[in-house]
Amino acid sequence: MIDKNPSQHQDPTAKSSVVRLEIDGDLAFIVIDNPPVNASSVAVRSGLLEAIQHVSAAPGIKAGIIIGAGSTFVAGADIKEFGRPPAPPELPTVLAAIEACPKSVAAAIHGAALGGGLELALACDARIALADTIVGLPEVTLGIIPGAGGTQRLPRLTGIATALDLVTSGRRIGAREAAKLGIIDHVVDGKSLHDGAAEFVRTLPGKRIVADLVVPPETDEAIAQAEQSALKSGRGREAVSEAVKAVKSAATLPVREALAQERAAFQQLRDSEEAAALRYNFFAERQAGKLDGNAKPLPVKTVGIVGAGTMGAGIAAVCAAAGLDVILVDANAAALEAGKGRVSTALTDLHRVGKLKVPSAEDAAAHVTYAGDIAALTGVDLVIEAVFEDLRIKTDVLERLAATVRADAVIATNTSYLDLDQLAEATSRPHDVIGLHFFAPVHRMRLLEVVRGAKSDPAALATGVSLAKTIGKLPVVAGVCEGFIGNRIYAKYRAQCEYMLEEGALPQDLDAVMEDFGFAMGPFAVSDLSGLDIAWATRKRKAASRDPRERYVGIADRICEMGRLGRKTGAGWYDYSAGSGRGAVDPIVTELVRAEARKQGRPQKIFAKAEMQGRVLGAIVNEAALLLGEGIARSAAEIDLVLVNGFGFSKFRGGPVFQASRKTSSEIDAMVDAAGQATGFGFRRGDVAALLADIAG
Ligand code: T1G
Fold it and tell me: How many of the other CB atoms lie within 10 Å of CB of 230?
């Protein structure tokens, strides 16, 4: 029977709002109750320290059990505290008190024990967990390393090689795997964690201080192999190389010295630009899935998809991989057959990378049925139109869908550029219409722009956002404009790069500089990958309505006119005749660019890297400011999420807007000025100060 009134024990945590003692006979449950994820904030650390000191001193108490209230154990240090100087007691102080406590202290774990949460458990004499618990040290995903002994205590249980894998990958593992590795001492089945922990603690022979254990011996080969693969996947990231150093020191340095070195490396990394960028992303992702108001998403079990092309088949695969029932429709039998093949390829790939929510690719494939007519979609909860990007074709399909699907079904279009409101009006039920703008390849790209039409019902929008989470996508809500958030900004970025081609730069220069800036691939190499013909068709379609005063660079047209449409034709901005790798610089293109530049008569110059990056950052930031000002984007951080998760900007850099926030306002103003001057007619200046203030939050 739990003694809720610990008065006889003078409960020292009485004044702590987030840690309390619950006495059960001669056991003291130390309950951490700091919603939503029991992050080990300064208040939690203080409360824990007091509780441990009480357990140590209280005569009637035989052992302590640390347990989390709510849905989880401890999800780690409070990341919100990272931007500030650390407040005492710091976590290592609390852990030292646990090790110094003469009585056994165990950790009873459910939900997640991550980062400082697992380090807290590792400092205990035993770890007991429910079977569906996850544990891990994900610090490197935040640009840091474990800072409270994780790199020293973990290898003493698992060996160096396994610890290298877990610490440098940051991957989370289940309780059973953790038990096999010696991290978890007891997995509770068939009873409450509270009872299972109490029972197990009574079997403990006394203190078992992990830090005092000897690192299990293993071969140098095993360690070297683990180190090599860690550094390879770490791609030169400082946090990973520091993590390797720290974990290896567990076998070479006295533990106290190694703990001090680990802490110093942690503190140095915590203040790094990369860590700041990853924290920014962490919280931005959590905000992205939230909607104002309290509209409830409609339940979605069955999804209809019209169009079995690359996009439609990819969407079908990610829905089936999440265990949703899918009906993929295409009036063209050959296209439908080809679609089946694409779905199966995508499912195999998703299985390979562990992204299936169902047991196997075969199970997922069984969730997909194929049909030749929209009439098959009468019963679906949500339908996604993914046919060719043509106004007339899409309008026709949406009109027929509106007449076919249930009155409470949500109708989504995967258009990239067409006016969602115009498409929605054609359905005569615009309140049920949203945009779900996927990125290719759909089963790989995490981003999903959820487009809010002028008349979209909040419940329809909420359904789109909820579906995104169900299928493992990162939802970013966007308003209606040409190109929504991502393509609109990318168009300005590309235009600025093309302007510089006319002013003396070459594609390979710009690509290299943009990759150095943070894009996974430069704009010209990206065009060759996706094919130059789509953008060419768009430019030709727009030619008639383009204002002649607008600056227009014709170089890309010249390249297309030569039949160079990118990798698929063996040549584009680069020459791919040597094979599939990176394209080779082609003197034909160099000469063409020079000739076009001469024709334009613009002053030629040799661009410095900083100027190229400045022009591009100026253009991106200005367009981001316009998007925020127009309410197309909800926040600056969400614009960065789009560029990181949809356009290959490095998350380790936070995003272009985040990068801008690290510069002075006069530097940014100068960059926007330069981009504006280069653009000339039609350039609209956005409220950049408001954008940067939005980041500062
Ligand atoms: N600190 C502060 N807030 C946190 C947090 C944390 N560690 N983890 C989550 N939150 C907030 C989050 O912002 C959101 O807030 C709410 O909790 C729910 O999160 C010394 C230094 C635990 C698996 O990297 O992986 O320990 O938006 O939406 O999907 O060595 O959160 O509602 O206001 O993600 O159920 C290491 C990070 C820290 C784990 C739950 N720990 N968290 O997922 O909910 S570094 C991590 C997660 C460290 C030590 C070092 C997940 C979760 P809001 P959520 P969820």
Answer: 21
Mean pLDDT of all residues in 288-294: 93
- 131's tokens: 């079977």
pLDDT of 123-144, one tens digit each?
A: 999 999 999 999 999 999 999 9
How far does the centroid of ligand 1 lie from the alpha carbon of residue 173, in Å? 16
Measured from the CB, is residue 92 less than 6 Å from ligand 1?
no
CA nearest to 415, candidates 434, 437, 392 = 437
Give the atom of ligand 1 at the shortest distance from the alpha carbon of 115: 26
Say what the pLDDT of residue 34 is.
97
Cβ(527)–Cβ(510) under 8 Å? no
* Verdict on whether the full-model pTM lies above 0.85: yes
Cis-peptide into 6, omega within 30 deg? no
Asked if 188 contacts 129 with a C-beta cutoff of 8 angstroms, the reply is yes
- Tell which one of 18, 34, 37 to mutate to probe ligand 1, the residue whose CB is within 8 A of the most ligand atoms: 37
Q: Running DSSP on this structure, what letter comes out for residue 319?
A: H
DSSP state at residue 385: E
Q: Residue 541's closest CA among 553, 533, 529? A: 533
Q: Which of 491, 506, 507 is nearest to 622 (CA)?
A: 491
pLDDT in tens, 542-571: 999 999 999 999 999 999 999 999 999 999
User: Measured between alpha carbons, how far is 658 from 602 in angstroms, rounded to an integer?
Assistant: 33
Residues 6+ apart with CB under 8 A from 236: none
Q: Which of 22, 99, 119, 638 is catalytic?
A: 119
Query: Distance (Å, rounded) from C-alpha 115 to C-alpha 147?
Result: 9
Q: Which atom of ligand 1 is nearest to the CA of 80?
A: 2
